[in-house]
Amino acid sequence: MYFSSQFDRSYDVVVIGAGDAGASAAISAHEAGAEVLVVDKQQERDRRPNSRYAAGYFVVPRDVDGAVAYLSAMYAVNGELSEVDPALTRTWAEETALNPQWLAEQGGASSKLFEGGEHTTLDGYESIDIHRGEWPRGVPVTGCPVFAALDRRLTTLGIEVAYGATAQWLLTDADGAVVGVQICVEGRTVAVRAGRGVVLAMGGYEFNSRLKRQFLPMNPVHYYGSTANTGDGITLASEVGAELWHMNAWPGYLVAHQPATGYPGGLPIDLWAAGGFNAPPGADLPGGFFADGSGRRFTREPGRQHSLHLEVAGLDAERLVHPRIPAWWVFDERRRVKGSLVNTRMGPAGPVREIEWSADNLTEIDRQWVRRAPTVRALAAICGMDPDALERTVATYNAACASGVDDEFGRPAHTLTPLGDPPYYALALWPGGSNTSGGPRRDADARVWSVRGAPIPGLYSAGELGSMYGLLYPSGGGSVAECMAFGRIAGRNAATRKPA
């Protein structure tokens, strides 16, 4: 925090971060009449915000009251409900319901993909739909279509964006109100006045190993997304006294990890060779399951999605090891030939094309990134699993497939395809996901709150930096929905705030 009354440049609103949340904030502030500057530390020519790695799903409440009940039930699981302002959950439900129409107004498009939230035992789960952004005809596919639409809109509106500009400090007045930001551009330090407000939309701390070790309950955790997400917004907000929340939360599952690809983070997998974890009834699905380090199955594979990491985290208190880190995805030849093991619709192997992964997986097998063996026992041996345990696991799993009933974990019958003929394969999997959720606490008006229990004047936040999601995540697309909704709220509230 620096006190400042001298500025090199002046704007009404400064938005730090140019992903979905930052773009939404800048667009809304501009439409409210503000002069806006967007600051992003990545260079324009090769920038890859987290938004570009997303599949483009976003949550859309079909019934606002039901969606409020669903989010409230999610908070209650962790005992957090009493600490969350009811106005925040209602604002989330009301504002995210507007996302499809608002995206269309920005030149984007979407359609409903499926119905229902992820946690089907919670009240209100049936009140939300999942939409997916769509690419207009003739537009090259280079990432998430939601981000592409918002990014084009920034250009169309003529909103100024300073790329390659690092935010160093938030600038305050003598009373502690945020009045600007000090940035560094090409080695030059520039003090920028934000007469009405600053919006932090800088993403999480996925690629800050120190913060991950400090806040996450397991190690290592490998995220896919922007390597520029190093927790800068947490530092800026903390320096002006912001309260932090949800620092140990993230929408987590199991990912592959292979630094030899040139990408240091996680790689989302494609369980069914159908674009992700969803397995529609009637689909021709290959067999396979997840096993721990001893060769024992431990979860209902297609059903956990963004809370799977909570199962993976279990510590063996006797041996003082995490037996599911890494876990193993065990599958057969039928899955190998069906398509890339890594998801090519999102993440580093998706449209951003940060890495390549072969469609038949043979290149990766030859490089021993994927283990192959002629028998189940041999596969267990090369993976360090107990051969007897893995053989029993395969026998139990195949028996469940034959009967159509998974007594152990309740996997849906239409996904129960037996492990077939050899060879057999295994891919090491690690806890990971798309983003962390922690950061400065915000309210229904997207204002950042201080550790003293009051809003910090002039400071707003949006997106994954200080996400409102805690232990549980509503469904695929929760982050993109929140980015658009609270980006709009932050932008328009900053733009209409009384000038400093």
UniProtKB/TrEMBL annotation:
One of its GO terms (biological process) is steroid metabolic process. Keywords: FAD, Flavoprotein, Oxidoreductase. It comes from the Bacteria. It holds the Pfam family FAD_binding_2. One of its GO terms (molecular function) is steroid dehydrogenase activity, acting on the CH-CH group of donors. Its cofactor is FAD. The keyword Oxidoreductase applies. This is 3-oxosteroid 1-dehydrogenase. It comes from Phytohabitans flavus.
